[in-house]
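retry 2 of 3: previous attempt timed out while embedding iron/sulfur cluster. Reduced batch size to 1 and resubmitted. Inputs unchanged:
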Amino acid sequence: MIYTFKDYSDMSGMLITELDSIVELCKKSKHIYICDSGDKRKNLYRFVRDCVKIDVSKIIVLTLDNVSNIAKEENIGILIGFLDEQNREIISKLNESGFTDYLTLSEMAMRIIDYKLRVLQPEQFHFEVSLADHCNLSCQMCDHWSQLAKPHLLDVDNFERDIKRLSQLMDGKIGYICLLGGEPLLNNNILDFVKITRNYFPYGIHQIVTNGIRLLKFNKEQEKLFYNTIKENNFQLTVTLYPIKIDHNAIYEKAKEYGVEIYMASDIHANDQSHKESYKYSFDLSGTSPIHRSLLCFKFNYCRCLKNGRIYTCNTPSNIHIFNDYFGKSLSVSDEDYIDIFKVNSFQEIAEFCAKPSPFCRYCDIQAWGDMFPWKPSTKKIEEYV
Ligand code: SF4
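retry 2 succeeded.
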């Protein structure tokens, strides 16, 4: 299940209220009883542990065996997940004993918890790598801050060291790797990145996401080398359709001529592909937003990012130095906001890390998200982000 921005903005107000009420119950209770079944129980448990930050000694799994004891306890909170047969039986036992003060979660809240907090297998995992901080376009509200970035290119050796290490940890298995930026084609070593990616991860569906501007500037020799290398390494090309004066049909036809798989998209995440919109990811500069609300963030445990030997659960903390430098702010990234791929012993540690909100999430004002604006060039003013 993949949620789009539209899904999130339509239901986020209601879900924020629901998640906030779970947090309130957890915080005021001496013990939290979690009533859920199978694998799902793990994710509700993980929500209370990792998003609400309740000490594990206070979290108890409620089952048919211990349900009769809890009527004697005071100051407890009960969370009831999916209403399956077992949970219905537990509810009826609670009602029989006169205990009616429990919180039954909505199906949508449970689905969000399950989806966002799932610990992925290598084949389900994907991440992005920025090959260039800067860009040859200047889009408003760019969530990589490329229009504000000083020119900076990723070093090939640095990348190979990281990809080799991840390949060892993941046994060469992955869903896909996305090479982007900034504008990735500003990195003249792009074909080395393509070959290295395919060499260490032979089975994933890998892609380059580009604005396409440089694709039309190749001479014949560069063109052949580029498209043939993309084809030989089984990479996809995704061209974002910005409303600028470039011949998108010519880009599409050229890729097809070389047999390269190409996708033209106004926004790879949008419901409506007919026009390009910008999403306003508002910050809470005070850093006091509740991190459990990050479950409603599209990027959380999705836009995972590899940078300098570290995996981040989303690209925001990995690029925030650009925002900080440009606007003179100090949104801080701690060593709990990433995991060092050279210090872990297994991929499992990375997957578990990515399934937890990062402390940096406190800077994201999720409640204010949801506004979309027709694409236009950036004003480079902080109002695009607050
Ligand atoms: S830091 Fe957290 S809330 Fe902010 S964009 Fe990333 S995952 Fe979402």
